[in-house]
Amino acid sequence: MKRFHVHLRVDDLAKSIAFYSNLFASPPLRVEADYAKWMLDDPRVNFAISTVGHGKGIDHLGIQAENESELAELKARGQAADQTLLDEGETVCCYARSEKHWVTDPQGIAWEHFQTLDTAVPIYGQSRPTTEIQSACCGTGPARAGKAAGACC
To answer: Is 24 exposed, middle or buried (CB count within 10 Å of its CB: 0-12, 13-18, 19+)?
Structure first.
């Protein structure tokens, strides 16, 4: 079963962790110096916050697949959406190793489709070259223009 993903950029990680822990009645599953993540079952959401990047608010949205067939289905949907799809393949992002691709909606909001392969990666992200769709915080697309290549969620 797929899981909805929301990633927010925040100014104060500690203050935001306290707020969302109370809001969700649960502490985050993972906390790093610049990142925190909750894996909630009700509602079924992968909710992440980080201080990486500039500004605050929604960084990107997404859907987390549990297996290869779900990820392939999401990729087919992304391709059918008649928007440019960037297939990142296997990558390191948000302290995890994942297989992922990106599509940007008509408003410029980046959507990440991914399957987490390993959650024990001790780094936030890896550098990757800038493509025709600019790299960004775990995302790509016009909404991500101006972010440094290699930035990650």
So the answer is: middle
Q: List, in sequence order, every residue forming a beta bridge with 72; answer none if it has no partner.
A: none
Query: How do the domains of the chain map onto residue ranges?
Result: 3-144
Could you tell me if 147 and 102 are in contact, meaning their C-beta atoms sit under 8 angstroms apart? no
Tell me the pTM: 0.76
CATH 3.10.180.10 fits 3-144, yes or no: yes
Report the distance separating Cα 67 and Cα 13, nearest Å. Answer: 31
Model pLDDT for residues 23-52, shown as the tens digit of each residue: 999 999 999 999 999 999 999 999 999 998
Coil/strand/helix, residue 139: coil
